[in-house]
Amino acid sequence: MGLTFQQVQKYEKGTNRIGASRLQAISKILDVPPSFFFDGAPTSGDNAADGFRDASTVPYVPDFVTTAEGLQLNRAFARIRNPKVRKRIVELVAVLAETEGHQSPESNRELVV
Hints:
By secondary structure, this protein is mainly α. It folds into 2 domains: about 1-40 and about 50-80, no CATH class; about 80-113. The chain has helices spanning about 5-15, 20-30, 60-65, 70-80, 85-100, 105-110. The longest helix has 18 residues, at about 85-100. It starts with a helix and ends with a helix.
C-alpha cells in the first residue's frame, strides 16, 4: 500500500483517520467488503444522543494494539492469507470474548490451561 511505519502507527493510534479510498484499498487487500470494518459499530438508533462519546466498557483498541500481545496477534494474523480462515478466527475470538463474560473465574482458568 505504500505506507510508512509511522503512517501505520498513526492509523493504529487514531492520530490520522483512514479515508474512504484507503479503506477501500485495505478491504481489497484483505479480501473483505468495506462493511467488515464497521461490524459491531453503533448505528443511529444506538443512543444517538451520546454522539461520538466512547463507551466506557469497551477497551480502547489502540491501547491493546500497542501491547506486546496485541502486536504479536496482529503480526501473526496479517500473515494468514486465506480470507475464510481470517474470518473464522475473528468469529472464534468474538465467541470466546462473549462466553468469557458468562463464565465463572474458575472456568476461565480452565480455558487458559
